[in-house]
Structures are given as structure tokens and as C-alpha cells.
Amino acid sequence: MGLKKQIESGQAVLGIELGSTRIKAVLIDANRKPIASGGYDWENSLIDGVWTYDLEEVWTGVQGSYAKLKQDVMAKYGVTLKTVKGLGFSGMMHGYIVFDKEDKQLTPFRTWRNNFTSEASAALTGRFNYNIPQRWSIAHLYQAILNNESHVSEIAYMTTLAGYIHWKLTGEKVMGVGEASGMFPIDLKSKEFDADLINSFDTLIEEKGFKWKLKEILPQVLVAGEKAGTLTKEGALLLDSSGELTPGIPLCPPEGDAGTGMVATNSVAVRTGNVSAGTSVFAMLVLEKALSKVHPEIDLVTTPDGNLVGMAHSNNCTSDYDAWISLFGEAAKALGAEVSVPVLYDTLLGLSLKADPDCGGLLAYGYISGEHMTGFSEGRPLFARSNDSNFTLPNFIRTHLFTSLCALKTGLNILIDEEKVVVDEIRGHGGFFKTAEVGQKIMAAATNTPVSILETAGEGGAWGIALLASYMAQEEEQTLPEFLNDVFKESMGVAVKPDPADVKGFNSFFDRYHKGLPLERAAVENLD
């Protein structure tokens, strides 16, 4: 069946992901290949010390990305998109969105980027003997309790961004297990929230006298392949304000960007791993067994089908070097040169491969926000050099690429060196890999592991959630790894092996990075 007929007959599948800087919609065909897309650019705001997005803009962005997708479908195939075989939503993991019994939002959305829940994080980690990172929903909830915030007593539902969108489109308060594992610990046998730890939390806060119990305000947990409701009439209008989208479309469980990253890189089986690198960067290694002890630097989450994953997460990655490249673009324009953004990136990032392996003694910190991996609740972007540093443009660019991965490397060292986690290959996706050769070589140097990317790596998590929706909609009985192996059998690129000189250079820079952290601390303390 041709693509036009597939779209007209409702055989295509749609995925939409709300990322940190872009909301993206991807339509895939019966072969699970992307055939159309649409996007909406947005940015978080720092309001009253809280990184947030307004939920009104969430809907503006979701509708905008879908409208652009419809336009793309019409331009390519001459068809008005009216229905699909399956639909899925994903978003930035973690964070805190709470509502009262009247469905009124009680506090602005607190995103994963906030680092003000350290007291709650430490207390819950100790109580549960299970690492509870600052980003997790339960850490935000307990911190609000410790802060005696008045809204807590009114909570009727707590969710994440993906869960919120799904709820409003279907009426179902559910969550994919991968996304749920970033809210509260998961029992790997039942694939549900850990009942013993829920009871422990209820006991911890019993003296507060809240009307709710934790289980009552959490979503129901589902695994990949399960149906998670259907698009309601009201939901169809929320997504497509023209009224052309048909209600009744089945939805897969909503997932987080970590889970969709694993799917989009075929990294859900044991001994596989992936790195998602963009505004933030995180590595996901699927574990053969539980870790030997609790590590505050390592999140324990799950794949969308419920396998244990060790996750090393850094809040900062490309934002600072994006700012520098934009500045170079302004300089070029001031000198009368019109350079497109792709050419600007490819040219400047390409210079990094001509630099000194260790960046010539330069140093930078791309801390737009705090960085829990190195103990910072706030950040200040910083560049430094000594008098005898080799201050060249290639070294400058390489410095900003290297520093964007140093916090991540701090966590990976724990998994690989201390816990002896074995990973055969890391599969990359996200904006860091748009200049493919550069992204792969720099990541291979940082991880000392072969790094591959996919032809579809640029589609990222939106394609990943579309694949999960396709997996849910298919009739064939397959495990998720079996399904993905069919999808990826011809599209995985050749892995770039780490160059020993690059690895040695990165390790030298990594040592300089950690020795220089007092510089970053001074910047935070002295620069408003």
C-alpha cells in the first residue's frame, strides 16, 4: 500500500514528544519509517527561582507541532490527516505537576532542571535505601512537605508532563513504567510502584494528617504494548483545533524522553546502552543485575517494558556551546558573511577534530543550571585558560564539546569502573550528534566505548514514542526487543571506535575539569 493510501486509511502512527527546546511530531508508516514531521520551538523560563513551562504554552506547542505535521502531510501526499492507527506522547522525565480534586493546577510545573530538593532527596534515599534523585517527582513532593507548602494538602493527582498530556487527551491517569520509574521506585516483579516503599512514605508523613495516601495520587503504571485509553472527543479538539481529527484513536502508555531514547536507539536489551545528548545529556545502560549499593549519582529507572536501567544524568550539555556558536554567527554576520546555521555548526564543530587531544590546557563549564553530579544547585557558564594555554579556535570548540560530557563521565565511571557494568556499544541520538562524525568521535573519547548512531537519530524521542504506539497497535505477539530488532535490522550505522589518543586527551581534560571545580563554585557565589 502506498503512503498516501496508508494515511487515508488510518494505517500511519503518530508520536509527539515535548523536549526541552522543541515539541516534535513524527508520523511513521507501516514499515515504521518517518514519513512526515512538524515542530514547535519553546524554552523554559526561570520564574521566582523555579525552572518552568506554562501549561498554556504546552497546548500551544502541542497544537502547533501537530498543525505543522498536517501541513507537511498535505504538502507531501495531498492528504488531510484525520486519523491514525495509534498515538503516543512522551516528554521530559521527572518534575512535579499537581492538581486538586477540581483538576486545578496547584503550583507551576517544576521541571527536571530544578535542583532545590536536596534535603528531600537525601532523606528519602536514606529511608528507602534506594537512590531518589532531586529531579524525581517524589523528591519534589516531599520537599514541598518539608517546606510546609500549603498546596500539598489539596493534592488529588501528581503526574509528569507526558502523563498530563495523556490524561487530558484520554481521561486516563496512567503512566508508562519507564516514565513512572522517574516518579517513584518500581517493583521489578510486579512492574508497579513499590508497595513497601509507598507504605514507608505514608508512615513518614502520617503526622501531617493529609487526606490523601500516596498511591491515591499517583498514576496507574502500564508496560509497553498495553493499551492506555483512546482519544476522546475533547482530546481530539485539544490536539487538532480544526476538528478534523477523529476521536477513538488508541494511545500507548505515555513515556519519558529517557524511555523513548532507548527505543529510538534499539537499546532496551541487556548489555545495550544509549546516550541522549542535547540540552541535557544522559546515558542509559540496561543492567544484567542490581547494583551492589546505592550511588547518589546513578538513577535506577526502567526500560518501557520494565527492565532495570542504570542512568547517569547531567543537567547541562549543549546549551553553552550553542550560545558560543550563535555568537560566532553574529561575528560572521557583522563581517558581512551570511552563513546558514547548519554550515556554521558543521564548520566550527569540525574544527574540534583538528585540536590538541587535551584541548591545549583550556577549561570551561557549561553550567547553565545546577549540576547535581558535581554538587551544584546553581550554575554559571564559565571559560578559563592559563597564560601558557594553546588558545586556538579548534581547542576552544573542543573544550566546549569535552566539558559538555564531563559530568556524564563522572556517573559512567561509577557504573563501568566500580560496578563493572558491561556495555558492548553505545548508541547515540540527539542534537549533539547532528554533526555525526564529530559527535561520535567525541562521545567515544568520553566513554571509551564504540558509539553508533542511526539514520533516524535526528528524529529522536518523537520517533521513539511513535514506535511504542506502533508496538501497542500491532496484532503480532512479540517482546519489545524482538519488535525493535525487526525495526532496526537495516538502519544501524557502523560504530566509531574510540581513538586511544582522544581517550587519553579526554581523561587529561577530565582531571583538569575536576581540579577546576572551585572556579565554578566561586563563580556561583560571586556572580548574580
From TrEMBL:
Name used for this protein in its record: ATPase
UniProt record, GO biological process: carbohydrate metabolic process
Domain of life: Bacteria
Keywords: Kinase, Transferase
Keyword Ribonucleoprotein attached: no
Molecular function terms from GO: kinase activity
Entry similarity comment: Belongs to the FGGY kinase family.
Family annotation (Gene3D superfamilies): 3.30.420.40
Domain Carbohydrate kinase FGGY C-terminal: 274-472
Regions annotated as coiled coil: none
Domain (Carbohydrate kinase FGGY N-terminal): residue spans on this chain: 13-237
Family annotation (SUPFAM superfamilies): Actin-like ATPase domain
Record-linked CDD domains: ASKHA_NBD_FGGY_BaXK-like
UniProt entry tagged with the keyword Kinase: yes
